[in-house]
Amino acid sequence: MTSTVAFIGLGHMGGPMAANLVKAGHRVLGFDLVADQLAAAAAAGVEPAASAADAATPADVVITMLPAGRHVLALYREQGLLAAARPGTLFIDCSTIDVADARTAHAAVVEAGHRALDAPVSGGVMGAEAGTLTFMAGGGEAEFAAAEPLLDAMGKKAVHCGTAGAGQAAKICNNMILAVSMIGVSEAFVLAESLGLDHQALYDVASTASGQCWALTTNCPVPGPVPASPANRDYRPGFAAPLMAKDLGLAANALRAGGVEAPLGLKAAELYAAFAEGEGAGLDFSAIVRTLRPQNGT
Ligand code: NAD
Predict the structure, then answer these.
(1) Does the ipTM surpass 0.90?
(2) What pLDDT, on a 0 to 100 scale, did the predictor assign at position 1?
(3) Protein residues whose CB sits closer than 6 Å to any atom of ligand 1
């Protein structure tokens, strides 16, 4: 069954996601504040709307892919998206936002007589283009079931993680694991360098021993052992350091809100925030290895 979808936020991620919905046969009305993004989406078959509310008016489903929680909440409430939609519209927010904002958004959607699902993604721009994203969803069973055909058109896997905000919670917990493990793997390579142990030798041992993890065997932070990792192309992303810093900021907010002590997670947030504001601004998150060497050498 095809749907009429309003897709708001047609940037790096939203543009190709909306295009994949069109390819799957759905009618997609799109809106973005930036005219060039709207034009690029129109070239892929998205019907450009004059405003987010105009896109939502005829839609069964409204998908948002926006920078942060404040954009989602402002659009839903002050900018009239909830008021413009038909009663019972399914609002799927795919943006990565604070768990608390996601829960506020769910409540606002339900209060306005609609249905809500938070469904952030992993897989990056390449996954968005290839339709191979992983979705982590929070909301009711019925809302997840209703969203699944659309999520399947944009991704390869959708996991129902629990109630409102659970998708965002899964996203930040996963990325906190990733950040801590990337720093751990990087520190191990730096220690190996100081001990005269070859990168490849450490890789050959750790990749088949208990040090094995994605940060080592897929996104290896030093050039050589994993030819496809960003380290082999001057750390061109990949997963850009500022996006990791953003996600760790959301994790840190949730840690503080919940009174959870996570010294490594908070340290990772601090290191990535500094890195993303400085030399890591345009680099893959694995380039943090550069900052961990003595005298910050290369
Ligand atoms: P982006 O900046 O490229 O796109 C966001 C778009 O939203 C922009 O085009 C902007 O003009 C538009 N926008 C902002 N406010 C709007 C409004 N009120 N109405 C209409 N359009 C509006 O960002 P992105 O890289 O596509 O990321 C989007 C979300 O996906 C973020 O929450 C990000 O954390 C998450 N994410 C990104 C990646 C990635 O690799 N880029 C991976 C996973 C998750």
Answers:
(1) yes
(2) 85
(3) 8-14, 31-34, 37, 52, 65-67, 71, 75, 95-96, 121-122, 124-125, 243, 246
